[in-house]
Amino acid sequence: MARESAGTGERSADFEELRPTLFAVAYQILGSVAEAEDAVQETWLRYATARVEPDSLRAYLCTIVTRLSIDVLRSARVRRETYVGPWFPEPLPTGTGGSGPWNGNGTADPMRAVELADSVSMAVLVLLERLSPLERAVFVLHDVFGFDYARISGIVGRTEGACRQLRSRARRHVDAGRPRFEADRRKRSQLADRFLSALRDGDVEALETFLAADVAALNDGGGIAGGTGGTYGARRTARLLANAVSPLLALGAGLRRRELNGQPGALVLDRDGGVLAAWVLEIHDGQIQTLRSVTNPEKLAHLGPVGDLRATTRERNRARRDARRDTD
């Protein structure tokens, strides 16, 4: 059943209340902040011009944003198949009291906010990237947002039985690869602070103590800026980080702590405040298991003005050469 259309002002207020939830649905299907925001905006345009008022506005809007996101994801798959190096989702600022499209995911329940934040971890979204668009949408709607199969069936245009099968396949895949995170968010935040402090000091020995023996340091540069990283072990990773970051800090760059995708992280900034990289630290058993960085400038614009990593790296390398000449 539907009712007569409400006024534009009333509709706008109702829509804004649900905007964080709509963004959360779209982002978890797409892994892109910009594409999720576009899907939400298109959802608003369709609702604003609809002639009737749905009985369940949340279900109605989630139906629109999900279908839009599935269509976008299908076209994006072609581009992502030829992507250079590791593909990570666009870094998403999270955390209580934060600003931006996430904004607590539209929930007033602190425990639910934590659960939703963990669901957008980069590691989980990378796993979801391997699902079909329909599997991903059904999984997100059922396991993250609690829609029942009857409602999901109407959203994705498949029978309830088909939706159950889609969700079951997605659940098996996610469970098989789901990473373990430090359960105590305060502990992981404190470890991240100590790790970044050691990095600012260039203390290789201290850095090594924070890294798991088989730590992976992976980078999404999209073939534009930065390499791909790898699994080098704790000692070599500590040295690589110190050698890469310490000279940048000496040139006026900075590290700003941020929570990204529900995990402790940081932004690497140039001397003018331009974003050079976003880091996410995946912590378990008191050590960093994976350090994911994003240096593709096309994935950083929503975090602030984007710096020129290539130019900054060239400047760093010149400074290194000058320092070596001075000591010869």
TrEMBL record:
What stretch or stretches form a coiled coil here? none
Every copy of the RNA polymerase sigma factor 70 region 4 type domain together lies at 122-173
Single biological process term from Gene Ontology: DNA-templated transcription initiation
Q: Which Pfam families match?
A: Sigma70_r2 (PF04542), Sigma70_r4_2 (PF08281)
User: Where does the UniProt annotation place the signal sequence?
Assistant: none
* InterPro entries, A to Z: ECF_Sigma-70_Domain, NTF2-like_dom_sf, RNA_pol_sigma-70_dom, RNA_pol_sigma70_r2, RNA_pol_sigma70_r4_t2, RNA_pol_sigma_r2, RNA_pol_sigma_r3/r4-like, WH-like_DNA-bd_sf
Q: Kindly indicate whether the keyword Manganese belongs to this entry.
A: no
Annotated region (Disordered), positions in chain: 302-328
Entry keyword set:
Sigma factor, Transcription, Transcription regulation
Q: Has the keyword Transcription regulation been applied to this entry?
A: yes
Occurrences of domain RNA polymerase sigma-70 region (ranges)? 15-77
Q: Identify a single GO molecular function assigned to this protein.
A: sigma factor activity
Family of the protein in this entry? Belongs to the sigma-70 factor family. ECF subfamily.
Q: How does it assemble?
A: Interacts transiently with the RNA polymerase catalytic core formed by RpoA, RpoB, RpoC and RpoZ (2 alpha, 1 beta, 1 beta' and 1 omega subunit) to form the RNA polymerase holoenzyme that can initiate transcription.
Q: What is this protein called?
A: Sigma-70 family RNA polymerase sigma factor
Give the organism, scientific name: Streptomyces sedi
